[in-house]
Write a structure and sequence with these properties.
There is one protein chain. By secondary structure, this protein is an alpha+beta fold. Among the domains are: about 285-450, Up-down Bundle (Butyryl-CoA Dehydrogenase, subunit A, domain 3); about 460-595. It has 19 helices and eleven strands. Strands 3, 4, 5, 6, 7, 10 and 11 form a seven-stranded mixed β-sheet that branches. The protein has a two-stranded antiparallel ribbon with strand order 1-2.
Length: about 600
């Protein structure tokens, strides 16, 4: 059976020491209640809920899956009871505005909650998780009436929300959306069309589901310029928020999937379902990006969650499984063999998992502070500045952390050997569950094109230059002996990091010049460029964690082993994982002709 203990100590290390959340919270009067004592209590209680209520449903939910019967979806045994406890505990309302029934705590704290929930049981966590994007979209683009009508129930968790983008004929290319919105005299719209791959699109956990739907108005322009956004409830709602008749939204099927089997992925048919417009006409895709960016950061978190769960169970297994003797001599002579954790190759896999899990968590928690800044911005300038930072980081987080999540879980299966392939141990489920993370909310290739094409080349590297400046200022500050008593220990991180950042800027400039002559260079280089960027970005956060660990070693005697482990993991990352940038640099700069020169008719001779 899978084991999980929430890594509260590591989470508090990032919150309190590395990213100094409490100093950050002091800037916003609305976050006055987010004191260290309260945050600690929330982390501890959330850990108990996730370990005791959600984890036991992880493997059983995978085995049972969701049931579909003539449009009705039943979640696995125990899911509804756990959801009711979640709502009763006020967990859904944790980081949402007080005016809609929320507790008004920071979104960054909500991200920590999501991490624990997602690690304990990703399939279950998707049901309330999709609601956050729906709520953010309504909060950002809805009318006051729409906010009052929908946000309170979504905030308390008695209703959930979805995003309905994809259709049978189109995936990422939303310009092909065919769903129609036909205006009615009363200001509503009849929504007609079919949406597929709708996570949590139908279930039995709540009395209503609020669908955020992309559709076309009559006479709308072709392509993405003619898409509008609509709120379409499963059950119709009157002006007082009371439930009325069922809307003409039916679940035609749920997908038989590779993983996340306990999360219902629905085919939804809209047969003149009543909806209301949210945001301006033909600006639906722009409004939907509020939802999509929320979902993409959440999907990046899935990579970290899967890596953490795989690592914890791999470590337990490696300490217990006996096989062969250490090459340097017997370590446990009283046993028939040594535990496999003594073997360097197993240690390399474990350290890779640890570096990915903790480095990924740092990347997420850094980003969560930016989300706070966007939510609390009081001027358009401040909001735009923070949004630009988030827009640059999001595709890297989404693609890089999910790809590394797949690597980490695969390493976990390798550590387990043949037992990793057996359902009983749970490792094969983690591998199956995390695989979707590289696909939904935009595949790795799509994220890479967004990063290199839109966020870098179209802006002439504006966001990259700003992030690079931040990293280089950190390097300069930590290399000054007057300010940094740990200069000697930090040099091994600072020199490598500053060199990589300088190379990052140079390679970006060279790619921009190449792209002017051959646009195929963007497509051929983009994925390698994104991964290259991700390794450097994660190196920045490992350097910060190492610096903080050195500082804490001087004052915190009780937790010295924790800080020493953090420094040694940083050393492993810089020695074993960061050098991957060298091969990625070579491949991303390669001429695309080797990809495109072979005629498609010659790809096979079958």
């Amino acid at each position: 059976m899978l084991q999980y203990k929430a890594p509260v100590m590591d989470m508090k290390f990032l919150i309190e020491d590395v990213f100094k959340y409490y100093k950050h919270y002091e800037k916003y009067p609305e976050f006055a209640e987010a004191t260290p004592d309260l945050v600690d209590a929330i982390l501890q209680e959330c850990a108990k809920f996730c370990e005791n209520e959600l984890l036991p449903l992880n493997q059983s939910g995978d085995k049972e899956g969701c049931k579909f019967d003539n449009g009705v979806v039943t979640t696995p045994t125990g899911f509804k009871a756990a959801y009711n406890k979640y709502v009763e505990g006020g967990w859904q309302s944790l980081s949402h505005p007080v005016e809609h029934g929320g507790q008004g705590l920071p979104p960054s704290l909500g991200m920590a909650k999501q991490e624990m929930m997602g690690t304990a049981n990703w399939s279950w966590a998707m049901y309330p998780g999709l609601s956050h994007g729906a709520m953010n979209t309504i909060q950002s683009h809805g009318t006051q009436e729409q906010k009052e009508l929908y946000l309170t129930r979504l905030t308390e968790g008695t209703w959930t929300g979805t995003m309905c983008l994809t259709e049978p004929q189109c995936g990422t290319d939303l310009g092909q959306v065919k769903t129609k919105a036909i205006p009615n005299d009363d200001g509503t719209y009849d929504i007609v069309g079919t949406k597929i791959f709708i996570s949590a699109g139908e279930h039995d956990l709540t009395e209503n589901i609020i669908h955020i739907v992309l559709a076309r108005l009559p006479g709308a322009p072709e392509g993405t310029r003619g898409i509008s956004l609509f709120i379409v409830p499963k059950v119709q709602v009157d002006q007082q928020g009371n439930l009325g008749e069922g809307n003409k939204v039916t679940c035609g099927a749920i997908e038989d999937k590779m993983g996340i089997k306990a999360s219902s992925t629905a085919v939804l048919n809209f047969d003149n379902a009543k909806g209301v417009l949210i945001g301006p006409e033909n600006k639906g895709l722009e409004c939907m990006f509020t939802f999509m960016n929320t979902a993409r950061v959440g999907t990046a978190l899935q990579g970290v969650c899967a890596s953490e769960l795989a690592y914890q169970n791999s470590l337990l297994y490696a300490k217990d499984r006996l096989s062969m003797r250490a090459l340097t001599g017997k370590k446990f002579p009283d046993k028939v063999a040594d535990p496999i954790i003594v073997h360097p190759d197993v240690r390399k896999m474990l350290m890779t998992q640890k570096a990915i899990s903790e480095g990924g968590r740092a990347m997420i928690y850094y980003t969560a502070k930016i989300v706070d800044e966007i939510e609390m911005a009081t001027t358009d300038e401040a909001r735009e500045k923070a949004d630009d930072r988030l827009g640059f980081i999001t595709p890297i987080l989404k693609a890089f952390l999910t790809e590394l999540g797949c690597e980490s879980t695969s390493q976990g299966m390798q550590i387990f050997g043949g037992h990793g392939y057996i359902k009983e141990w749970g490792m094969e489920q983690i591998v199956r569950d995390v695989r979707i993370s590289t696909l939904y909310e935009g595949t790795t290739g799509i994220q890479a094109l967004d990063l290199l094409g839109r966020k870098i080349l179209l802006t002439r590297g504006k966001s990259l230059n700003a992030f690079s400046k931040e990293v280089l200022l950190f390097c300069k500050d930590k290399s000054m002996i007057s300010k940094n008593p740990h200069k000697r220990q930090m040099n091994k991180f600072i020199w490598a990091l500053s060199k990589n950042v300088a190379n990052w800027q140079q390679y970006t400039m060279r790619l921009a010049l190449k792209a002017k002559k051959d646009r195929d260079i963007v497509g051929s280089a983009s994925v390698d460029y994104l991964m290259y960027s991700g390794y450097i970005m994660m190196a920045y956060f490992w350097a910060q964690m190492a610096q903080t660990a050195y500082e804490k070693l001087a004052t915190d005697v009780e937790n010295r082993d924790f800080y020493r482990a953090k420094i040694k993991t940083a050393e492993f990352y810089f020695e074993r994982l960061l050098p991957r940038t060298k091969s990625l640099a070579k491949t991303m700069m390669a001429d695309p002709k080797t990809l495109m020169q072979l005629d498609q008719d010659l790809l096979s001779f079958l």
